[in-house]
Amino acid sequence: MYEALKQIIDNIVDKSRSVRILFNAEEWTSTIPSRPGWYWIKTNTPIQVLENVGAPSSRAHVNIPVTIGSTLRLAGMAIMPPGDRSYVIYNGEATNLKARAREHVEGHSATYCLGLLEYDSLQEYDWTFSYITLAELGLADSTSKQLRIIVEQAWRAEYGWPILCKK
């Protein structure tokens, strides 16, 4: 089983595509498919900036400063920024990658997401949404949440825990 998961994770990294997040235009999501798959969000935003953004306006959104504080207690497991280069800040799985990308930027009142548009100070940094669909990996293009969660967790075990992921 480990070898099969490792192969999927390697393929995710090798075959994924990335789109630069544009905060003032929705067309950045035009190439992201509305299909199930995995994604991760990268930024070059310093942790100190993230720690000072304040609480979100929606209770459903990630409380960035609180989540960072609890994630950093995972000493040695958290993905840390390598200087001023981009690093993975969040990863996950989704039934609809395009909708999930929009939620992380625009926010959603009933979904755990970043809601990045709420924070003007974050928009001066680079943000990237990387993704791959199940179909692109030759996996059954089903909505198997169990498969997506297993691979999501295996990715975190291999590459580290993104500082804005709480589960």
Description:
The protein has 167 residues and is an alpha+beta fold. The chain has one domain (2-159). Helices cover 31% and strands 16% of the residues. The protein has 5 helices and 4 strands, in the order αββααβαβα. It has helices spanning 2-15, 47-51, 64-71, 97-106, 145-159, and strands at 17-20, 37-43, 87-94, 127-133. The protein has a 4-stranded antiparallel β-sheet. It is globular. The model has no long low-confidence stretch (mean pLDDT 90).
Map the helices and strands.
Elements: H1 2-15, E1 17-20, E2 37-43, H2 47-51, H3 64-71, E3 87-94, H4 97-106, E4 127-133, H5 145-159
Antiparallel strand pairs: 1-4, 2-3, 2-4
Helix pairs in contact: 1-5
Looking at this protein, list some descriptive labels:
167 residues, alpha+beta, 4-stranded antiparallel β-sheet, 5 helices, 4 strands, 31% helix, globular
Helix content: 25-40%
Q: Average pLDDT value?
A: 90
Task: Please write the string of helix (H) and strand (E) elements.
Answer: HEEHHEHEH
- State Rg: 15 Å
Number of helices: 5
Tell me the domain tally: 1
The percentage of residues in β strands lies in 15-25%
Taking the sheet with the most strands, its summary is: 4 strands, antiparallel
Distance between the termini: 23 Å
Regions with little confidence, pLDDT below 50 for 5+ residues? none
